[in-house]
Design brief:
- By secondary structure, this protein is α/β, with parallel strands linked by helices.
- It contains 18 helices and 18 strands.
- It has 2 domains: 298 residues, Alkaline Phosphatase, subunit A, CATH 3.40.720.10; 107 residues, Gyrase A, domain 2 (2-Layer Sandwich).
- The strands form 5 sheets. The protein has a 7-stranded mixed β-sheet with strand order 2-18-9-1-8-6-7. It has a 4-stranded antiparallel β-sheet with strand order 12-13-15-14. It has a 3-stranded antiparallel β-sheet with strand order 3-4-5.
- Helix 3 packs parallel to helix 11, helix 9 runs parallel beside helix 11 and helix 10 packs antiparallel against helix 11.
C-alpha cells in the first residue's frame, strides 16, 4: 500500500515537499505513457487522467526529460518558455522522487518504480558485497577513480535495477522504445541498466542534433506505435555552477526553447505528427547552496567520531553508517545542534514510511541507506573533510526535499494539433 501522507509516519520539517508516489510523481510517468499506448505497466500507477487524457487517443509518445528544469525555473522564466508552453494542452506540476538526484530519478523514469523498488537510491552508495563505497555515474570506487570497476568486480548492469525496464515491458507487446541522450553517456553502465529492452539507442552531440534525429525517426516510423525517451543535461550542469537563477541558465533555456520550436515542433512533417503526444518533464529542480551554508563534519568531531565510515549519498542528502550503539546519539546531535541546517531520521523508519517509495523493496536497499538519513534544510550542504578541496565549485545542488528540488513541470502537447 502506498502511504499518501508520508509525514504522518515520518515527522519532517513543514517546508519539505514529499514525493507523491501514489499518483503525482515522475515515477508515475512511465505507467501513464504505457496506459496511453494501451499497455498495463508493472510498477506504480499512472497519473490522474486529467494529466494526460485531454491529449486524446495516441499511439506514439515522446518524453523529453530536461535535467534540472525545476518548477521554480519554469515559473520564473515564463518570458523564455511561453513560445512553447502556451501551446501545451496540459500544464501541471509533479514531484520528483527521493532522493531528488539524477541517477535515482532517471532509473524511476526508465522503470516506472520508486527508488526503494529499483534499488538505485543515491549518487554514492555503499556496497558491502564489494567492501567499497562507489559513485553511480561511473561505477568507480570513491577513493580511486577506476571507471566501471564495480562491473569488473561482478556487478551486472542487466540485473542491478530490480524492476523490469519500460523498454522490456513495451517490447513484449510489440511497441519499440528508442533512447536519445548525449553521446558521452549513451553506452555507459547506467545507460545499459536503463536501456534493457530498448530497440535502439542514439548518442547525440548536441541538443539540436537530438531534435533533428528524433524528428526524422518520427517521420521514418510514421503511423507506427512507438515510445521515444529523450534526456538532455545542460540546464542542470550549468545550474550547478551558476545556480538556476543565473544568466547562463537563462541563456541555455532560451536556446532550448528556440530549438524545440524551430527544429522540432515547427519542422515536423504531417505524417510525423499524426497520433503523437509529446511531454516535457524534469528529473528534479535545484536549490541555491551558497558557500556560506557549507558545513563540514571535521568541524563537528563529536559527530564524526560516532560514524563508522564516511557518509554516502551526496551533500544534500546523506546516508550515515554509525558505530554500534551510536545511532540515537548521532540523530540527537544533528537535530539538536544542527537542526537549523538539517534533519536526521532513522533510515529504517524512512524506508518503512515510504519516503523512497512503497513495498516491495529491492533486495539490499536497507544496506544502501545506512543507519541514519540526513536531509538538508534551506540551502545548506554537508561534506566530509576529504571533499573540502572541491566543495566550493558548486553553488547549486539537489538531492533533498525543498520545494525547489522536488517540484517539476509536466507539459503535454498533441503534435498533430500544433
Amino acid at each position: 500500500m502506498i502511504k499518501h501522507d508520508i509525514s504522518q509516519f515520518l515527522p519532517v520539517p513543514d517546508e519539505f515537499t514529499l514525493p507523491n508516489y501514489a499518483d503525482g510523481s515522475i515515477a508515475n510517468v512511465p505507467a501513464t505513457i504505457a496506459k496511453m499506448l494501451g499497455v498495463q505497466l508493472t510498477g506504480l500507477s499512472a497519473l490522474p487522467e486529467v494529466m494526460w487524457r485531454p491529449l486524446g487517443g495516441v499511439k506514439r509518445v515522446v518524453l523529453l526529460t530536461l535535467d534540472g528544469f525545476g518548477w521554480n525555473l519554469f515559473q520564473a522564466r515564463q518570458d523564455l518558455v511561453t513560445a512553447v508552453s502556451q501551446r501545451a494542452t496540459i500544464t501541471n506540476q509533479l514531484t520528483s522522487i527521493f532522493p531528488s538526484t539524477t541517477v535515482a530519478a532517471l532509473s524511476s523514469l526508465w522503470t516506472g518504480s520508486a527508488p526503494a523498488q529499483h534499488g538505485l537510491v543515491g549518487l554514492k552508495l555503499f556496497f558491502p558485497e564489494f567492501a567499497v563505497s562507489a559513485g553511480m555515474l561511473d561505477f568507480s570506487p570513491l577513493f580511486y577513480k577506476a571507471k566501471d570497476a564495480l562491473v569488473d568486480a561482478g556487478l551486472d548492469p542487466e540485473t542491478f535495477l530490480q524492476h523490469p525496464g519500460v523498454g522490456e515491458q513495451l517490447g513484449k507487446v510489440g511497441i519499440p522504445t528508442y533512447a536519445f541522450k548525449g553521446k558521452e553517456i549513451a553506452n555507459s553502465v547506467l545507460s545499459q541498466m536503463h536501456g534493457r529492452g530498448v530497440t535502439e539507442s542514439f548518442g547525440m552531440v548536441s541538443f539540436a542534433d537530438m531534435l533533428v534525429q528524433m524528428r526524422e525517426l518520427l517521420h521514418k516510423r510514421a503511423g507506427e506505435p512507438l515510445f521515444i525517451n529523450a534526456y538532455w543535461p545542460s540546464i542542470d550542469t550549468i545550474s550547478h555552477y551558476h545556480t538556476w537563477q543565473g544568466t547562463p541558465v537563462a541563456a541555455e533555456l532560451r536556446a532550448i526553447i528556440y530549438q524545440l520550436q524551430t527544429e522540432f515542433f515547427d519542422a515536423l512533417t504531417d505524417a510525423a505528427r499524426q497520433d503523437t503526444a509529446f511531454f516535457i518533464v524534469a528529473d528534479h529542480g535545484q536549490e541555491l547552496t551558497p558557500l556560506s551554508h557549507q558545513i563540514f563534519l571535521s568541524d563537528h568531531p563529536q559527530l564524526e567520531q560516532m560514524l563508522f565510515m564516511r557518509p554516502t549519498g551526496e551533500p544534500r542528502v546523506l546516508y550515515l553508517y554509525t558505530k554500534h550503539g551510536c545511532r540515537e546519539a548521532t540523530m540527537d546531535y544533528i537535530n539538536t545542534k544542527l537542526g537549523h541546517a538539517m534533519t536526521a531520521v532513522p533510515a529504517q523508519a524512512a524506508l518503512q514510511a515510504g519516503l523512497l517509495g512503497p513495498e516491495p523493496f529491492a533486495a539490499n536497499v536497507a544496506d544502501r541507506l545506512g543507519d541514519v538519513i540526513v536531509i538538508m534544510r534551506g540551502g545548506y550542504t554537508l561534506f566530509s573533510e576529504v571533499e573540502r578541496e572541491w566543495a566550493h565549485k558548486m553553488i547549486g545542488r539537489h538531492g533533498g526535499l525543498t520545494h525547489a528540488e522536488m517540484q517539476v513541470p509536466w507539459l503535454g502537447f498533441r503534435l498533430d494539433g500544433w
